Amino acid sequence: MNDKDIYGQFICPVSGDKLSYSDSRDIIDKVHSGDLGLYCGESLPAAIDGVLQSNSYMYPIINGVPMLVEGYHLVNQNEMLNSENRLEDMVKAQLKQMEKFSEMHKKKYYDQVTEAQQKVLREDYYGMLHGASVLDIGNGGLTAHAQLGAEHADKVSRFFCTG
């Protein structure tokens, strides 16, 4: 599978539409001439490899890496200069993107990471607490059994927690 095949697997971060690859000289020339620029106002490097585009958005490929970040889509510079709400739009876009990322991260990784952390703590650390008094600050009010697990909770002399 080459880069062009991989590019066909991407979707637009804004619309969710499938993106298609283009290395059209017309588009690349418009970027180089300054007719097309990034919506966020950042400067593009001297050369782009092509673009990924949907019906509504077009994203540059720089050094083989598609810039699929909301706000980093290409727009006609005249339209961009006339947009009075560009900064407000960018802040909203960044917040929306962070919320999407956080939601995706939580769905995909949070439970797995938390379980892996708890496994390491139970196997490598909590055994050292046997016979000790434990003050667990900021654990959300969890009981010793919920925090340490049954195999260790009954082996600590006392367990105090604060929310």
Summarize the structure.
Helix content is 41%, strand content 18%. It has helices at residues 3-7, 25-33, 77-81, 86-124, 144-148, 150-153; strands spanning 20-22, 36-38, 50-53, 58-62, 65-66, 74-76, 133-137, 158-162. The strands form three sheets. Strands 1-3-4-5 form a four-stranded antiparallel sheet, with no helix packed on it.
Describe this structure in words.
The chain has two domains: 3-83, no CATH class; 87-162, no CATH class. The protein is 41% helix and 18% strand. It contains six helices and eight strands, in the order H-E-H-E-E-E-E-E-H-H-E-H-H-E. It has a four-stranded antiparallel beta sheet, with no helix packed on it. Strands 2-6 form a two-stranded antiparallel ribbon. Strand 4 and strand 5 form a beta hairpin. The longest helix has 39 residues, at 86-124. The mean pLDDT is 81.
Feature tags:
163 residues, alpha+beta, four-stranded antiparallel sheet, 41% helix
For the record, the count of structural domains works out to 2
Number of strands: 8
Sketch the topology as an H/E string, one letter per element: HEHEEEEEHHEHHE
| Secondary-structure-derived class | alpha+beta
How much is the radius of gyration in Å? 25 Å
The order of strands across the largest sheet is 1-3-4-5
Characterize the overall form: elongated
Poorly predicted tracts of residues = none
Question: What portion of residues is helical?
Answer: 40-55%
- Round the mean pLDDT to the nearest integer and report it: 81
Number of helices: 6
Distance between the termini: 52 Å
Approximately what portion of the residues adopt beta-strand conformation?
15-25%
Largest pleated sheet: 4 strands, antiparallel
